Amino acid sequence: MNLAEIKKLIEIFNSSSQIARLSIKQDNFELKLDKSNATALPVAPVSAMPAAHTTQVQAQVPKVAADPAPAQTLESSVGASKGGDFITSPMVGTFYHRPSPDADPYIKVGDVIKKGQTIGIIEAMKIMNEIEAEFDCKILAIETGDGQPVEFGSHLIKVEKV
Fold this sequence. Notes:
The structure is a single chain. The chain is mainly beta. The protein has one helix spanning 3-14; strands spanning 21-26, 29-34, 72-73, 85-88, 93-96, 112-113, 118-124, 127-132, 137-142, 148-150, 155-161. Strands 3, 4, 6, 9 and 11 form a five-stranded antiparallel beta sheet that branches. A four-stranded antiparallel beta sheet has the order 8-7-5-10, with no helix packed on it. The chain has a two-stranded antiparallel ribbon with strand order 1-2. Strand 1 and strand 2 (29-34) form a beta hairpin. The longest helix has 12 residues, at 3-14. The protein is elongated.
């Protein structure tokens, strides 16, 4: 794990994440993030660590307000917290609505999509993972903004099964 990957993890952890603690072990490297601890320990550069050395990072994280952009929806009276069917995030990462910044989005509110159709991409550790619909459905609302960090189980798209 290199320094850029560590910084990206800390950025996702610090943003709208509800996770209080995170611990990652990879080979002889260990990273621990804890929002409840008020002290910050310096991080040794990954290339400077001996093979058997373990680094621990304690990050102090301020509370971050949720994204103020409202969810796109067909039904203005239905909010993100109301019941319904959702396509949820299978992993932690950054959600994108389109394959590239200049491309059209995979889906729009009102679209009827088929099982297996791509609804977006989640970038995790610099790997782009296509997220597919698990059933035929109509898009009622896009709950997650483009480029927004998501957690496992986060609501991405509100749908109505067809």
